[in-house]
Structures are given as structure tokens and as C-alpha cells.
Amino acid sequence: AKTAKSDDGLSAAELETLIDAVLDAKRYSYSPYSKFRVGAALLTANGTVIPGCNVENASYGLAICAERTAIAKAVSDGHRKFKGIAITSDMNSFCAPCGMCRQTMSEFGEYPVYLVKDNREVQRWSIADLIPGAFGPGDLNIDP
Amino acid sequence: AKTAKSDDGLSAAELETLIDAVLDAKRYSYSPYSKFRVGAALLTANGTVIPGCNVENASYGLAICAERTAIAKAVSDGHRKFKGIAITSDMNSFCAPCGMCRQTMSEFGEYPVYLVKDNREVQRWSIADLIPGAFGPGDLNIDP
Amino acid sequence: AKTAKSDDGLSAAELETLIDAVLDAKRYSYSPYSKFRVGAALLTANGTVIPGCNVENASYGLAICAERTAIAKAVSDGHRKFKGIAITSDMNSFCAPCGMCRQTMSEFGEYPVYLVKDNREVQRWSIADLIPGAFGPGDLNIDP
Amino acid sequence: AKTAKSDDGLSAAELETLIDAVLDAKRYSYSPYSKFRVGAALLTANGTVIPGCNVENASYGLAICAERTAIAKAVSDGHRKFKGIAITSDMNSFCAPCGMCRQTMSEFGEYPVYLVKDNREVQRWSIADLIPGAFGPGDLNIDP
Ligand SMILES: [Zn+2]
Ligand SMILES: [Zn+2]
Ligand SMILES: [Zn+2]
Ligand SMILES: [Zn+2]
Known about the structure:
Four copies of one chain form a homotetramer. Chain A is an alpha+beta fold. Chain A has one domain (about 5-140): Cytidine Deaminase, domain 2. Chain A has helices spanning about 10-25, 65-75, 100-105, 125-130; strands at about 40-45, 50-55, 80-90, 115, 120-125. In chain A, strands 2-1-3-4-5 form a five-stranded mixed β-sheet, sandwiched between helices. The first copy, chain A, is globular, with a radius of gyration of 14 Å. The relative contact order of chain A is 0.18. Chains in contact: A-B, A-C, A-D, B-C, B-D, C-D. One zinc ion binds near residues 67, 98 and 101 of chain A.
């Protein structure tokens, strides 16, 4: 099993901060349909921690996951470079990001993805691990 | 043509604040694919102003509009009641919200929607005007 | 209450065919998450009837509604002009299309939308009624 | 580089049929915004070949990719078991499926994914390769 290491560019203190933030983030989850609370916490290149949660809708297709909430939030505040993202849910097991979120995280480059359990256990993935050979801006000849 | 009035529960000062915020919000738009910048600004029940912009993706279907960015941002910060939302783009005409955003705004009740031009001209809609007879939580017997 | 009329370009026989098709269409609904079955039936300009149902996903945001299934199906078979669409669910009341589907239907012009109950009762809407002042291709200076 | 093999449960003839179908499928692509045509062709368990193409919208977030078109089409015709899917675009290189499509393909189990170039060159992936450790129905305790 992969474990969080401080050799990702994140210090142990940064990782602890991210774990604190993600466990807190699911508190505001708006999930009356799935009753499945998810939290995310994004660490920007300049050290800002941005929490996100899932925001559902009566039209299921409009559900925005916690990870995408955190990224849209960050981008709309002027951040496009990230040092890491943490993800948690109420499950006992690690909560894997869905394909929508893997694609969205991938749009902004490579950074470690930490799946976090309530007991603070952590599993680390790279974005390339999560979505190998991802479709991206380059396939459309766009340099964002 | 409908015009902004201070009889929506918004004072003239609140509306001015919202117009300032929305014109500023599109600054962070991530729209390398459409090159169509959109901004939104949401006024929460407790007076917080939350800016949003569109955040696109190489996979077009993952584009999050400015309005949905602002709402996900607000909800993930603990806000679910809104006094109004403003929307702007770089077009000379008013920028109508898409159906995804009409549905998302509707999930959180009724509040005035202000379309704003660069010259600060304003057109006011209600959510019921934008998405009459909307599908909502009640259709799924959910009381969020 | 609006009722289906044969003055929409649809003959009474065409409307009956559409009602038969939509009531049958929800049979294949893949909705293990919402347990809310929806059907749609689209009548193309050349008289083909195309059924659709909702297709959900463990990641709620990937849910495709019945109306969008029918439209994607039609377009991928070479149809872009429509004479009408019918929508039904298992509710006792009429099932209103969500904002995603209003926007998607609107991309392909104006045609009548028939909400249908199990007892074959019908309520007719225009697309302009459902999504007034819709955002469309023209706003992006595109003539599809 | 991975290549198509007839040991996937697909015979060489079935793979040829799928390649013919996918190269034809992008013909109906509705992509006035990206001008990026994509085709898909899905082979169901009972041997039906179902073509799909991307169907875009002025609201970018409503774009449905070719792969998701093919799957919604298949499901709405009563198919939920698949033997393989082929994907192509107008690029000279192989066109990788986006995260939305990886997640959608994964909802219906494991089957080979063939990326196809215009010159009929093929690259084979498994769904588990494309979206390792996918989030799925089991995570929500649903057995669809
Ligand atoms: Zn997700
Ligand atoms: Zn929108
Ligand atoms: Zn819908
Ligand atoms: Zn895709």
C-alpha cells in the first residue's frame, strides 16, 4: 500500500494541515440524494489550503464532486498550480476519485493525490497513476 | 426591459457591490478552449459576496460555468441561502445563464438573477422566469 | 393546463405514436441510484421515433437523462431536426425536464415538448417556454 | 505499444467490424465548437455494433463524448454487457478517452478498449488500465 511521504514537495507539516482540512471539509457537503459526504482539500503552490465538498442537485447529472469544487474554487481565486490534494468520505475504505475528477485534476498538471481515512491513514497516488495517458490540452493543440 | 430595482431585498448599495464583484470576477476565468470569459458573483443571506468564473477542461463536458463555480464555492463554505446572483461576460449583450446553471441556481430556492454588462447596465430575472416549472428536490420526495 | 394539440405540425397519429414510444422507453432505464425511471421519445423531421431512458453512474454527475440520451442517439444517427419530444417518468404528476435537458433540446431549435403521464394525459410546452432567452450558438458567434 | 489481439473474446472478424464501424461513426459528429470529431463503436454481448459520436452544446459542459453517446444508446436499447469498444478521432495519434468516459465505461464492467487511427492501427487498453481503482457502484453499496 502506498503511503504519504514527505518527498513529494510537501513537508510533513503541510500534509498534516491538508489532512486536518479535508476531514473538516466534508462538514458542508450538500448530498441529500446520495447521502454520501465527500470532502477535498487542495494545497496551492503558494501554500493556501482550499476546502471543497460535494454539491448535488435534484438533476443528478449536475452533481459537483468535492475535488472539482475545490479546483473551481481555487482557479476562481487565481490559483492554477497545486502542490497536492486530499480526498475523504464517510467510508471506512479509501475513497477513489471518479473519472470526472481525475480528468479535472489532470488539467492542471501533476501533483500528489492523498486519499485519507477518518483515522488519518493515507494512500498516495500520482495523477498519472489515476488517469494514465490522459486526454489533455495538448490533444487539442492548446497551451493554456 | 427589466431593470434592477432595490425592491428585491437588495439595497442599492448591495447591488452596486455585486456589480463591482461580478465585473472583477471574470478576471480569473480559465477558458482556453472557448476564449469566452464569464464571471458571477453571489450574495449570500448573511451578506458575503462570492465571486466565480468559468473553469474549462480539454474534455469540454467538464466545463464548470461561473455561476456553478460561485454556488459550489458558497455551499462548500457553509452558505445555502442567497440574496442574489450577478452574471457577466465579455459580450456586448447580456449573457444568459445556460440550462445547467438555471437548474443549479434553482436547487437553492428563489432569488434575483442580475445580468450585467460592462457598462454596468443590468437586467433582472427571477429564477422562476429562467426555468419555469423547474424539476426539483420535491419531485424526488426529498426535503434537503 | 396546456394540452397536446395536433396543430404543432404533429398529426394526432404522430402524437399517439410518440406517447406509445415514451411509455415503453423507460423500460430500459438504468437508475439503480435514484430508482427514478425516466423515458423520452424523439420524433425526427423524417418521421423516425427514437426512444431514450436515463443512464446513471456511481459518480452521480455522469447521469445522462432520458431526453439527452434520445438526442445524442438521434444526432449520432444523422438527425438534427426534430418535430417533437415526449417525456415521462413513474411519477403521478408530469415530469418536467431538468435544466441540462432544456439546454440540450434548445441547441437543436424549437419543437414541441410533451410531458406524458402513465394514463396518457399530455401537457405541451414549447422550448422557448421551458428555457426563455436561452444561451445558444449565436452567443458564441457559431452557426452550427 | 499494445496491439489488438484476438484473445480478448473478440475474433479478428469482430475487431475488423468494430474498426469499420468506428471510422464511419465520427461522420455524424456534432462538434461546431471544438471542431474535433470523435467516433466510438460499441460491441454488445449479443453481437450488436452501436456507433456513437460526440454531441456538443453552446454550453460546453453539456458536451457528450462519442463513447458516452454509444453507451447511453446501447443501454437505452436494452444492452448492459459489452464485448469491446473502439474510439477514434481526426488526430494522427491515438485518441485517449477522457475521464468522464473512462468512468462511464467502467460502470458496465471490464471489456477491451481499442483506440483506432485512420490507418486502422490499433492500441488496446483494459478499463482497469484506463481508470485504476475506479470508484464504482460497490462504493455506494449498490449492486446494479
Ligand atoms: Zn468526482
Ligand atoms: Zn452555465
Ligand atoms: Zn435532464
Ligand atoms: Zn469523453
